Amino acid sequence: MIEPAQADPLVATMSAAIGGPRGRHAHGYVDWLPAGAVVLVLTTLTFAVGMLQKTSCATRGWDSGIRYTHLCASEVPGAYAAQGLDHPVLTTYWASVMAQLTRWIHDSTTMFVIVNGVGFALLAVLAAFLLTRVRPDRPWEIAAFAVSPALLLTGLVSWELLAVAAVAAALWAYSRGDLGLTGVAIGLGTAADVYPVALLVALLILSIRRRELGSWAIVTLVAGASWFILNVPAMLNRWDAWKGFWSQLIHHGAGAGSFWLLLQDSSGTSIAPATLNICAGIVLGALLVGILTLGVLAHREPTFAELGLLCVLAVVLVDKVYAPQYVLWLLPLAVLARPRWRDQLAWQGAEVLFFCATAWNLAGLMSSGDGPAAMYDITIAIRLCAEIGLGGAVVFSLLRPQTMTVSSNVVVV
Predict the structure, then answer these.
(1) Where are the transmembrane segments (predicted)?
(2) Is 160:154 a contact under the CB 8 Å cutoff?
């Protein structure tokens, strides 16, 4: 098993405080404390701290003004009283089950949040476990997921962890060569959120490189069937609500956190939804063609996680809205595709800054005389640059694999 200080230069440097990296003649691992188990414990602790961080809203009211100043705002409480959710079907099913369980335990909004929080924690631990199994020789790399500040702050904001667990399951299933289970996981993820469909593009690129389009067809057919089976009840029973979700995606204008909002604010113009759809489609198509070219011509074969991260990043960069919790879309892919603490800290630091700025902007604390929420726009730009930098690091590693050297069992990138 490869140790953290052998794989990551930053960890190797920091280990100097306790004597430096482990030498070649040192004894083996301590059997009673497996690295994977530590990762799961860390994930649990991180999520527990995240739930405690929301207690200000729980004690003073989820609709109170402090929900933004204290960074404890969440979409979950509002779903308890609502008759339905304007979300993908798996999210709606989950919320309905959690609501029934809440009424059985204690009929209150706070209990609904607690019940969902426990469920989300289990999903986070499941995702961490599956990610450690993708690369069982390097489980410590998933510590960047387990102790993620993004997970701590945004895990209880919405229902993103449903799709995160599904994406982790897809990565694990594909690492085992189980195409059917990979398709089921992607179908479940797409029924919880739209972005996991980008993983099919990543697999298509791998299939083209390997000349195995039949494998991609199997995954795609199973994913489509899984998504359809989950959506059929909603399509039959609540067609207008089901159609309304997809209609909203099409007719939505430039929303908070997006590149398009930044473009509008900087230019002083407004982009019509129809024009925005065309522009976003063209840019997304260009990015995906670039990723396809990279995946086919790269010096070494990209991993599923690397191509998946690049494809989801392309979606994130051109999306018409970017909420702070969307960082979770990237997290499981990023810790596998770029398991370097230097890159993780830089990217997640920018995401945390954007999370805080979004909340404080909604609280009216970031307005500026130079324009509407000018400081907020700056944090959007910082976050976009960090995301591009994360993707750029993956691209560079594919174009220049010779920059990876191994010396005394230490891998340096």
Answers:
(1) 32-52, 111-131, 143-174, 180-206, 213-233, 275-298, 304-323, 344-366, 378-399
(2) yes
Range(s) of the domain holding residue 83? 4-61+71-412
| Rounded Cα distance, 228 and 222, in Å | 10
Half-sphere exposure of 290 (CA within 13 A, CB side): 14
Domain-located, residue 160: yes
Cβ within 8 Å of residue 74, ≥6 positions away = 54, 57, 62, 67, 113, 156, 157, 158
Residue 66 resides in a domain: no
CA–CA separation, 289 vs 274, rounded Å? Answer: 23
From the list 236, 216, 233, the residue with the least C-alpha distance to 224 is 216
pTM value? 0.90
Q: Is residue 74 within 8 Å of residue 158, measured between CB atoms?
A: yes
For the chain, give the longest Cα–Cα distance.
67
Per-block mean pLDDT, blocks of 10 residues, the chain (413 long): 56 50 54 79 97 92 89 92 74 93 94 96 98 91 96 96 98 97 98 96 97 96 97 88 82 90 87 92 97 94 97 97 96 96 96 96 71 79 97 94 41 41
Q: Which of 332, 317, 43, 318 is nearest to 166 (CA)?
A: 332
HSE-CB of 54 using CA atoms within 13 angstroms? 26
- What domain count does the chain have? 1
For the chain, the residue count is 413
